[in-house]
Amino acid sequence: MLQRLKHFSAPLLACLVFFFTGLALLPWPGPQNDELFFAGPIYAPDSAFFQIEIGAWKIPFMVMSYSGALKTWLYAGLFHFLAADQWSLRLPVLLMGLGSIWLTWSLVCRLAGSRAAAVTVALLATDTMFLLTNLFDWGPVAIQHLLLLGGLLAAHLWLSSRSTKYLVIAAVCWGLGLWDKALLIWPLAGLGVASFFLYPRELFQALRPKTLGLALASFFLAAAPLVWYNLARPGETATQNTHLAFSELQGKVQVLRQTVNATSLYNYMIFRDPADSPRPPRTRLERLSVRLSTLAGDHYSNWMLPVWVLGFVCSLALWRSTHYRLLFFLLVATFICWVLMALTKGAGTSPHHTILLWPFPAMILGIVFSELAARIPRFGVPVLWTVITVLCAQNLLTTNQYLARFIVNGAGGGWTDAVYRLAETADHKNASWYGLVDWGYLNALRLLHEGDLPLFLPAIPAEGQVLNDTDKQELTRQISNHDFVFIQHTADKEMFKGINERFRKAASELGYTEVLERTVPDRNGRPVFELFRFRKEGT
To answer: What predicted TM-score, i.e. pTM, was given to this entire model?
Structure first.
């Protein structure tokens, strides 16, 4: 029993660290519009990008041309039992992240031994970007990681045992993952190319015609909603999303670097300037986080970029090691995956894309460092764990830097926590309908009111355009109704710059004036939202 507990101590500790750091971060940002994109069809069935109708039922298949409704289906069931809030939204994907860590441990342990697996999950569980992208899951990436790794582990078990049930599990995992988000094709393509070049004999021996047919049937059955959509709208997933762009390469290299060193989300999620309404810490956890940040000094980045470079160089030098083919396999898979996203127009420009490379880099580092430790007599293992402990500590200090900035500066942009106060303010007592002027809070209001708040998007002219007569009639109907309240960001918080003024100008041309009723601040007291009605000029 003690031996078994010792064997599993590394993944258990890694999962505990990941879980509790996730819990500490979970409440701070408000729900972001893309984080909630899956929830649209739950509360507004006609908002699905593609759906089928069976009688009175409207079943969503796709929420975007390359993103399926798997998460919508999962949360539709979950929200039958739990109230829709930040905890029921984020705790399930945090648990999926735990599942990904455990699957990574199981896979690496079987491929390269328990020490390599322990190093891998230690680096993965403390990786700030892996935590943030899985916890807030605006990519979304949590299901992608879980299904990719579940398929990989099942594929390894199939190759080891030749049991077809594992092959079916692998095919189903990858089919569901591709439906969840077609971008899973990047790591799958990387794995396919790496398998063909480094394990060709094993691959062709295992994939007999009958076996291949079973795998393909299972895969396409799991991905059936995606297949259905592309048959109904021939090839739209590919034709709308696979345009090459070489001009974006430099920027994508920069995003990759910022994802590795964990700097990419500060200005995106947090007000970084402490002079802008700092909020003093109040609870014991808040004071501890801010105090630790002050004592340790600013840790806006980790040390993983040079570690990546060192690990990749060392992996090439270990060509005579027991695991050299496995290392090359992971290197090729990682390289192909990144090249595909780097050459795709609009992809790879955000950490929620580059994080799809994970956990391959952590696996490479785990195997490389374990191999190097084995080659140093007596001192190899102690030196290894000293280095890994320092790296994990640096990672956790970087994660704490995010937490401390959330506490003091608050969430910014589309992640503002002011949306909670907005949801409390906007209710049926104040208006029969709410018109949303700007982008970023439609899905949050749907979720926090569980679809019970009547919302609409007013007819606002685009930049440089003029409303036609039909749109003018519709806008007049909207702004002349005193029971309609409109919500916009304050001018300095606009997501689409100038949209407030365009709306105000269009209403003025119809003879109406904006009348501000209430301003909604965030946790730091900064005004974020404005609620207003219109009145006829001269009345």
So the answer is: 0.95
